[in-house]
Each structure stands twice: as structure tokens, then as C-alpha cells.
Write a structure and sequence with these properties.
The chain is α+β, with helices and mostly antiparallel strands. The protein contains eleven helices and 13 strands. The strands form four sheets. It has a five-stranded antiparallel sheet. A four-stranded antiparallel sheet has the order 10-11-9-12. Strands 1-2 form a two-stranded antiparallel sheet. A hairpin with a 4-residue loop joins β5 and β6. It is globular, with a radius of gyration of 22 Å. The N terminus is likely disordered.
Length: 356
């Protein structure tokens, strides 16, 4: 991606604009049960984050993250002269607490900087300094991208599962079980509504609540977790059979699994009135929804079967919006990290990038 000179920092950066995107992620099945050793299915969400790499002749490295209001710049010459001995040579490495402290100095952020801004800038600098020091960097190597993305997750989250970076890198659907991640083969792209109830939640408290309920009612909650595990496995089997030519009866099974999992999650105590309202609104239109993630508010997904007329979809979105929710139509099972030409981008994406 960069032409290395000297110590491996970019001298001439890019000869042309490079556009890269990666999908988001939702949990399809296995929320909370995965914490207790059960299977979870995570799928890529075709709401993409775009990265634009653009050459400059001003001798600066510019970082612009408009969603969180960050615009920073560093002199390339200063970075070249920086004592980067705190970054180890060799393969992808895990940032230490000492490295994080050093990166705070390099970032030069004010003391009152918001946590999200500070972590984002530190993650960028860690990846930039580490990757640019390597004499070989091939964008085609998805495994390497995944490893570096995981280190970015470590910078921000401390001890992540690795699911987020894996889904964004590889796309499609992934199976997560006791720390092991594997891709589902032939997973179809499914149309969904993603609805944000805009109700904030505390993931740590929700996870602790399920654990406490398991300790209090082990003979009740343990079978619920086992049943959620079975739902994940059955969904994995059906997705594998759907391939490129899904049958109507397979969508019926997916809908039944969605309903059962949502009821189980309510029984675990991670539901919320807003999520119940979401399910009621979509059920009235023959659609099936469940929470995704920690629950207690947050987001839910609604499966859209093939053949559903667009006016019906729009009416459902409007009904959910009328509840005070944000609702987006998108797909899951989308491609992973991708390179784009400017002409291939959706006009809305192009306008957003041009406005940076």
C-alpha cells in the first residue's frame, strides 16, 4: 500500500486514490449462550465502513474520522525520526501497556480528549507505525489484514473475542465456539431490516445478569443455553443447505428459529420493552424479528423473505420509525474487506467521501 523508504516509512504514498471498505457485524444466533461455551453465529452486515487513502505532497500524514469528529495530521519527517524502538520487529504483535503510553505521547492529544477519540487515534498510529516499518505489505493477504485488525481491536477493547475483525475481513458468516472461529461455506446473502431502538444498554451488566440467573436457577437456565446452542447449530445447517438457490421452506425454518431464540433471550432476562415492540410491529406484517447482541435495548434484526414487495418493506420501516426507532434495509452475509474504484461506489457513498 505504501512505498517504503529509509526505515520503511512511506515516502511517496500512493500514486492514486485507494478506496477500501469493510462490513459491519451482527450476531445471528447464540447471544449470551456463547459466553457459557455454546456456539454463536456472526454474520457480516452490508453497512460498510469506507477508508480512502489519498496521496499528498505536503509531507504530512492526515487522519480524518468524520463520524467521531477527528481530524489530525503528523509530519512524515517527524514520524521517520521518531524513536520507534518500542515497536517490535517481526510478525504481528500485541500492544503492551508501555507501547500504549508511548503512543499517547506520539498522538499529542489534549488531556480532555474524549476516550473514543483517543483510542481511535492510538489504534491508527499503532497500525500505521507497525505496518509501515515492514518492508513487505500485500493488501491481498487477508490473513495478515485480519491479524492487524485484531490488534486494532486490542487497542480499543483490550481483550476482544476476534469475531468482529474476522467477520469484517472475511465477510459471510462465521461460527464462534470457545475461542475458535471458522467460516460457514456457501452461506447465502439474506435481506434484513436492522432496527436501532436507541435504548442504551450495559453489556457487562446484561452478561452478569445472565450469569447470576444461571447460578440461581441452574436447572432452568442451563437447558435454555443448551437450546440456544441447538438453534445456532440448526441455523448453521440450514444456511449450509441454502447455498445460491434457497427454498421457501428454508426461510420458514429461519423464521421459526428467530422466534424461538427471541423467546429464549427474553427468558434469560435480556429482553426489553422496545424490543418487544419491534417484534410486535413486524409480526403484525408477517415478519419475524429478534434482538442482536447484548439485548436490553440496542438493535434488532428482521428477516425479509424473497418476493416481499417493496411497498410492504417501506410500510414496515415507516411503522418502526414511528415508534422512535432508526430502521435501515440492508443484507447480511456480505463480502468482507474489499477494494473499490471510485466509479463503482454508490452515489451517496461518493458524496459522503467527497465531503471529507
Amino acid at each position: 500500500m505504501f512505498k517504503p523508504i529509509g526505515k520503511g516509512f512511506p515516502g511517496a504514498m500512493l500514486s492514486e486514490v485507494l478506496l477500501v471498505s469493510a462490513p459491519g457485524k451482527v450476531i445471528l444466533h447464540g447471544e449470551h449462550a456463547v459466553v457459557h461455551g455454546k456456539v454463536a453465529l456472526a454474520v457480516s452486515l452490508n453497512l460498510r465502513t469506507f477508508l480512502r487513502l489519498q496521496p499528498h505532497s505536503n509531507g504530512k500524514v492526515d487522519l480524518s474520522l468524520p463520524n467521531i469528529g477527528i481530524k489530525r495530521a503528523w509530519d512524515v519527517a517527524r514520524l521517520q525520526s521518531l524513536d520507534a524502538s518500542f515497536l517490535e520487529q517481526g510478525d504481528v504483535t500485541t500492544p503492551t501497556s508501555e507501547q500504549v503510553e508511548k503512543l499517547k505521547e506520539v498522538a499529542g492529544l489534549p488531556d480532555d480528549c474524549a476516550v473514543t477519540e483517543r483510542l481511535a487515534v492510538q489504534a491508527f498510529l499503532y497500525l500505521y507505525l507497525s505496518i509501515c516499518r515492514k518492508q513487505r505489505w500485500t493488501k491481498e493477504d487477508l490473513e495478515l489484514i485480519n491479524k492487524w485488525a485484531f490488534q486494532g481491536e486490542r487497542m480499543i477493547h483490550g481483550n476482544p473475542s476476534g469475531v468482529d475483525n474476522a467477520v469484517s475481513t472475511w465477510g459471510g458468516a462465521l461460527r464462534y465456539h470457545q475461542g475458535k472461529i471458522s467460516s460457514l461455506k456457501r452461506s447465502p446473502a439474506l435481506q434484513i431490516l436492522l432496527t436501532n431502538t436507541k435504548v442504551p444498554r450495559n453489556t457487562r451488566a446484561l452478561v452478569a445478569g445472565v450469569r447470576n440467573r444461571l447460578l440461581k436457577f441452574p436447572e432452568i437456565v442451563a437447558p435454555l443455553l443448551t437450546s440456544i446452542d441447538a438453534i445456532s447449530l440448526e441455523c448453521e445447517r440450514v444456511l449450509g443447505e441454502m447455498g445460491e438457490a434457497p427454498a421457501p421452506e428454508q426461510y420458514v425454518v429461519l423464521e421459526e428459529l428467530i422466534d424461538m431464540n427471541q423467546h429464549h433471550l427474553n427468558a434469560l432476562g435480556v429482553g426489553h420493552a422496545s424490543l418487544d415492540q419491534l417484534c410486535q410491529v413486524t409480526r403484525a406484517r408477517g415478519l419475524h424479528s429478534k434482538l442482536t447482541g447484548a439485548g436490553g435495548g440496542g438493535c434488532g434484526i428482521t428477516l425479509l423473505k424473497p418476493g416481499l414487495e417493496q411497498p410492504e418493506v417501506e410500510a414496515t420501516k415507516q411503522a418502526l420509525t414511528s415508534c422512535g426507532f432508526d430502521c435501515l434495509e440492508t443484507s447480511i452475509g456480505a463480502p468482507g474487506v474489499s477494494i473499490h474504484s471510485a466509479t463503482s461506489l454508490d452515489s451517496r457513498v461518493q458524496q459522503a467521501l467527497d465531503g471529507l
